Amino acid sequence: MSTKEYALNDIVEMKKQHPCGTNKWKIIRMGADIRIKCEGCGHSVMLPRNEFTKKMKKVIEQATEE
């Protein structure tokens, strides 16, 4: 699974760790920009889609569809 596929509410791992000590982020908004929220401290960051794709390492948990 080398392709980086991600969807809304997925938990992803980024290449760089957040200053709070965790490396788990939840995708909370998708569009031209992607907003991710730190699972450790709750801080959210907005990144352009191409920058997010570069900085993302892997999908840890995929969101379950109900």
Radius of gyration: 11 Å
Low-confidence parts: none
Question: How many domain regions?
Answer: 1
Biggest sheet, strands in spatial order?
Answer: 4-3-2-1-5
Structural class: mainly beta
What's the helical proportion of residues?
A: 10-25%
Tell me the layout of helices and strands.
Blueprint: E1 11-14, E2 24-30, E3 33-38, E4 44-48, H1 49-55, E5 56-61
Antiparallel strand pairs: 1-2, 1-5, 2-3, 3-4
Summary of the model, kept short:
With 66 residues, the protein is mainly beta.
Characterization of the model:
This protein is mainly beta. It has one domain. It is 11% helix and 42% strand. The protein contains one helix and five strands. The protein has a five-stranded antiparallel sheet with strand order 4-3-2-1-5.
Labels describing this entry:
66 residues; mainly beta
